Amino acid sequence: xxxxxxELDRAFHALxxxxxxGILERLSRGTASVxxxxxxxxxxxxxIQQHVQVLEASGLVVTQKRGRTRECRISSDxxxxxxxxxxxxxxxxxxxxxxxxxxxxxxxKPVHPKHSKSSTPKGKK
Length: 125
Fold this sequence. Notes:
Elements: H1 2-15, H2 18-27, E1 32-33, H3 34-38, H4 45-58, E2 61-66, E3 69-74, H5 76-107
Antiparallel strand pairs: 1-3, 2-3
Helix pairs in contact: 1-4, 1-5
């Protein structure tokens, strides 16, 4: 469980940055070189390479050197681990909210007009 937690920590750390999320979005459409990933950003190639390294360390991205280029692709296994963790949390909270809703529904009591203070006309006592 601790190792699973470390993997998730690295993945969520990587996902915390907008540039890295953008890189993952681009890679969701297929493999790309680091220079292709850098095109939409005003950052240097070295900065994008650092983002790719964080993504690779998290396991979300796999890279492979081909000649002078480094090709990047998404690791579906790592994405699946994050998705499964999020899905488990979502199911847990949906169950808790369903329980809360049932509790609130059971606590509702009808208000009878003859016992309510507002049922007496104003000015008459």
